[in-house]
Amino acid sequence: MCHLTFMSDDDRYRRFNLRIPKDVFAALQVVADAHSHSMNAEIIQRLEQSLQIGGLMPTVKSDELTPEESLMMRIWREMTHDQKLAMMAFLRSFLSMSSS
């Protein structure tokens, strides 16, 4: 006989309170509605994507950056999330071609 055990949502999720600026909340609500997602689902999706993009970032002092690195940082910070994902995919592909 096979016995299946399912985890409840309480086993898979951790609850906590989050304070968020009103304008960020409003922007998330618009995007969540447009994607037919709950606010929770939208926030989780964005957090997961940001962890895939950045992971743990080392701390770098601005005076340690070259002018080219500073320019790249300014451009990166102006990019949308989707643009960052596309750029990361491009760079991974480019680097894998270069190492072949």
TrEMBL record:
Residues 15-52 form the Arc-like DNA binding domain. One of its GO terms (molecular function) is DNA binding. InterPro entries: Arc_DNA-bd_dom, Arc_rbn_hlx_hlx, Ribbon_hlx_hlx. It comes from the Bacteria. GO terms for biological process: regulation of DNA-templated transcription. This is Arc-like DNA binding domain-containing protein. It comes from Komagataeibacter diospyri.
